[in-house]
Amino acid sequence: MGKTYHFIFIMLACTLACGRADNSPAQPPPGPQTRSGNLHPAFSLDREDLAALTAELPPPMREAILENPRDFLDLMSRLMREPEGLLVLVDKSHPLPEGWEPQDLKKLSDYPLLRLSRQNLLLRAIVLPDLLDMAREAQKDGITLLVSSTYRSAAYQKTVYERNVREMGQQTADRESAWPRHSQHQLGTVIDFGSINDDFTGTPMQRWLDANAWKYGFSLSFPEGREELTGYRYESWHFRYIGRSAAEMARRFFGDIQQIMLEYLHLHIQKFAAAEI
Asked: In this predicted model, what pLDDT tens digit does every residue of 177-198 receive, in sequence order?
């Protein structure tokens, strides 16, 4: 009798165990929300994904990103929410659309804090809060920032370029100024400071901007020794406003080279957007 109960107990236990295994709900495959190893709570990206997304970057930049992925992705998440136009790639190969003009231009003469070379200068409204903050901080350090050139329409850029061709010849002009629709100035987010020539280099204003402009979202567009990359010779006076997050990203992860960062974002920012959680 004891052996019979023992046999029944074993069979019952086996049946229950098998039943649980057969009737257990199927577990969903890992998806963006459940995937393990994500590098940042805002993105469904693991280290392998980020390695693939940075494969074409110069090794020092790629290594900086992979060594600090959370910081990089935190900045990426923030700059993806910047206003339209701040990070658009505009260079000799990427023109602005025909007829494109910014819609929120403001007269800088309405802001007494700013020192201007002339009274008809315009900038996008989005630039002004950080520009005014920067001007105040510069004054605390004994520096008065001189704003000399800002927004240029495509038509005005055409006259600038053609004048340079007449005065310098085509080859030199192409190193100095952009063709119409290919100029960052048309964005309404660029400032040329000071004398707008080589005399500006090494001045107290230039040195202050070189050390501090990035803190306020401004990035030097055409750094020294990068003409082959940017298409233009060194312009120590030409700063583009790209927002504080992008300026920090350029400085920390792209060697402070705006062109490389903007080309990278041009190619990949939609991939990061698709990976957002």
From this structure: 999 999 999 999 999 999 999 9
